[in-house]
Structure formats: structure tokens, C-alpha cells
Fold TetR family transcriptional regulator.
Amino acid sequence: MHVQDAHWSSAAAIAPGGGSVSPAVGNARADAARTTPLRVDAQRNLEHVLRAAREVFGELGYGAPMEDVARRARVGVGTVYRRFPSKDVLVRRIAEEETARLTEQARTALGQEDEPWSALSRFLRTSVASGAGRLLPPQVLAGSARGSAGSAGSVDEARVPQQRVQPGAGELRLVPGDASGGADDSGVGALLEVVGQLVERARAAGELRTDVSVGDVLLVIATAAPSLPDAAQQAAASARLLDILLEGLRSRPV
């Protein structure tokens, strides 16, 4: 079973040549780069890097080195750093895109399914099938845990899966403000809000256990997406595990 690994990349990542790049400077450079039109070959390289980053981080966690991303993308590591001045910038880009994708999947399920349980199960199946669970940023899980504190079905911090740290990797930490789970530029707040609507609808309909929280639903997504070398085996294992977990979420007549 695959769960998210231990901490994120350091707040100040090391760029080629040994110089440190602060998160603020790195993010500013990345934002400027996003708005600058790219040549065809540069755009192609960017797409390769982003695809490779999703694969590498999905398999090894956010502790995987930039060299692994470059190798998977079949470009030099300098090419990766030219587009993403620090690893932190690349990690945030991937995490934000995956968080936005999960949010859209939740909104689609909420808008297209009349039955509360069908909406919740559709969201879970779509999210697990897309592999987004392997790229859930830690602040999504931590934020949902804090948001559930004091309510029925609160998620204890000890139950939140943590990311694995690659051998030799520096300790990875979140900036405290990023883990609030509130409205921020990473879209975590929007995700928690829409998943919360799915949970409340299913609970109000008596189809979801009363002790199940938003955090529990996100933990299902994180744990039901194992990383296996064979795509067919991975899909089968994910579907089987999700069937079992969904049965555990449903309420039962007394």
C-alpha cells in the first residue's frame, strides 16, 4: 500500500552551482516564467518535465531528487532548473495542479450525481483512478485533520500519512502558513470545502457513517492508490482496495 512520504523539500532549495534560492525569489521567478511565451522546443521540454515530475513524485514521494525528474524527462538537470529555480517551486507546481484536479473532480461529482452516496463514491473512484492520491500535498491531509478537530470523526495527527525521505535528502518542511487548510494560493481550502459538501450530504442522507470526516475521505484517496510496476495490476489493486474502503465508510442499519 502506498501512502505519502515524510516531509517536503527544504524552504530554501539549492540551485545548480551551490547557491541557495529563497522560496520567495524562486516563486517570483517561476510566476514570471509562466507568463512568458515559450518556443516550441521549450514548451515541449516543460511538458516533459512536468509529466516526469508527476511520475517520479508519485512513485517516490516529494523527497525524490531533481536529478531523477531530469532523467525521467530525458533532459539535463540544468534544463529543469532553468524553468524551476528550486525544487520547492517544482513541488508546489505539481501539488497545486493535483489539488486543483481533485477539486474539479469533487465539483463534478457534486453537480452531476443526485444521490449523495453516488456522488461521494464517484469522487473517490475518479480520484483514485487518476492517481492523484499519490500526489496529495501534506498540507491537504494536515489541514483536513485540523479542520476536523473537535468534531465527530476528527483525524488524529498521528494517523496522517507522512512522506518518505530519500536517503541523503535534507529534511523537508512546510512553511507554517501553508498548512492552515484555509483559503490560500495552493487551493487547499477550496478542496476541503467541496469535499466537505460531499461528506455532509452523504452523512445527512444516512448513507455515511457519522464518525467519518473530510480527513478520512482524503486518507482513503491517499491509501487506495498503490504504486505497482504493472499498470493493470495497479488498477486492479486500487479498485479492490477502494471497494473494501467504501464498504467501511457506509453506514449500517442498527
User: Anything to note?
Assistant: The chain has a mean pLDDT of 74. Residues 13-88 form a domain with the Tetracycline Repressor; domain 2 fold (CATH 1.10.357.10).
